[in-house]
């Protein structure tokens, strides 16, 4: 369980570094961003970007799926297919584990929020 959080934080750090390096190079199209699962690069309006399922999800199940987003004049579209479908994420988790993961997510979110303030 800790490996999952570690990998997710590592991927997030890499993405945020990439975003910082990109800066404001282009004001047109869709800006790069981290959606809490994957890093999306800058894209031109009309472009469809595809990302492989995050490696961190392979810790639970071998997946080779991918997720896409369209860059529109209104910004990024929702991912399609949804991560749950594309990456074979098992949503049939026992209630005790759901509670555990909800707690881990809350702790992660609070920690991340504090790191932004400090």
Automatic annotation (TrEMBL):
<dbReference type="GO" id="GO:0051240">
    <property type="term" value="P:positive regulation of multicellular organismal process"/>
</dbReference>
<comment type="similarity">
    <text>Belongs to the G-protein coupled receptor 2 family.</text>
</comment>
<protein>
    <recommendedName>
        <fullName>Growth hormone-releasing hormone receptor</fullName>
    </recommendedName>
</protein>
<dbReference type="GO" id="GO:0040008">
    <property type="term" value="P:regulation of growth"/>
</dbReference>
<dbReference type="GO" id="GO:0007189">
    <property type="term" value="P:adenylate cyclase-activating G protein-coupled receptor signaling pathway"/>
</dbReference>
<keyword id="KW-1133">Transmembrane helix</keyword>
<keyword id="KW-0812">Transmembrane</keyword>
<dbReference type="GO" id="GO:0005886">
    <property type="term" value="C:plasma membrane"/>
</dbReference>
<comment type="function">
    <text>Receptor for GRF, coupled to G proteins which activate adenylyl cyclase. Stimulates somatotroph cell growth, growth hormone gene transcription and growth hormone secretion.</text>
</comment>
<dbReference type="InterPro" id="IPR001879">
    <property type="entry name" value="GPCR_2_extracellular_dom"/>
</dbReference>
<dbReference type="InterPro" id="IPR036445">
    <property type="entry name" value="GPCR_2_extracell_dom_sf"/>
</dbReference>
<keyword id="KW-0297">G-protein coupled receptor</keyword>
<keyword id="KW-1015">Disulfide bond</keyword>
<keyword id="KW-0675">Receptor</keyword>
<dbReference type="GO" id="GO:0008528">
    <property type="term" value="F:G protein-coupled peptide receptor activity"/>
</dbReference>
<dbReference type="GO" id="GO:0019838">
    <property type="term" value="F:growth factor binding"/>
</dbReference>
<dbReference type="GO" id="GO:0017046">
    <property type="term" value="F:peptide hormone binding"/>
</dbReference>
<keyword id="KW-1003">Cell membrane</keyword>
<keyword id="KW-0807">Transducer</keyword>
<keyword id="KW-0732">Signal</keyword>
<keyword id="KW-0472">Membrane</keyword>
<keyword id="KW-0325">Glycoprotein</keyword>
<dbReference type="GO" id="GO:0008284">
    <property type="term" value="P:positive regulation of cell population proliferation"/>
</dbReference>
<dbReference type="GO" id="GO:0016520">
    <property type="term" value="F:growth hormone-releasing hormone receptor activity"/>
</dbReference>
<dbReference type="Pfam" id="PF02793">
    <property type="entry name" value="HRM"/>
</dbReference>
<dbReference type="InterPro" id="IPR003288">
    <property type="entry name" value="GPCR_2_GHRH_rcpt"/>
</dbReference>
<feature type="domain" description="G-protein coupled receptors family 2 profile 1">
    <location>
        <begin position="14"/>
        <end position="91"/>
    </location>
</feature>
<dbReference type="InterPro" id="IPR050332">
    <property type="entry name" value="GPCR_2"/>
</dbReference>
<dbReference type="InterPro" id="IPR017983">
    <property type="entry name" value="GPCR_2_secretin-like_CS"/>
</dbReference>
